[in-house]
Amino acid sequence: QVHLAEFGGGLVQPGGSLRLSCEVSGSIFSIYAGGWHRQAPGKQRELVASITNGGSTNYVDSVKGRFTISRDNAKNTMSLQMNNLNPEDTAVYYCNVDLGPTAWETPVESGYWGQGTQVTVSS
Questions:
Q1: How many Å apart are CA 102 and CA 122, to the nearest integer?
Q2: Burial of 66 (0-12, 13-18, 19+ CB in 10 A)
Q3: CA torsion sign, 84 to 117 to 27 to 99?
Q4: Mean pLDDT score, 47-57
């Protein structure tokens, strides 16, 4: 059974940094593509960063230049480095992955979600 475990959330002061990790277990396949989403209280969940099977990355405008998404297929882990955090980044962050060989045109399995990790930016 595929399981996604998220790590790295917490409380940080404005201007600080956090690194979120999403570790995939229970599958013979590596991370094909994925994304980090966040949901703040009273707001809709939004996709903040994504990475394709080819390694291309995309970011929502509000995090460009501050957040970096990456993937380590050897460890089957996807990460989100978050720098220069501000209170508007406060939210529960969720990872979402598709699994399969990155050289293939489509993933083998899709739509797995992590349990979410709280990020709070406050002085």
A1: 38
A2: middle
A3: negative
A4: 97
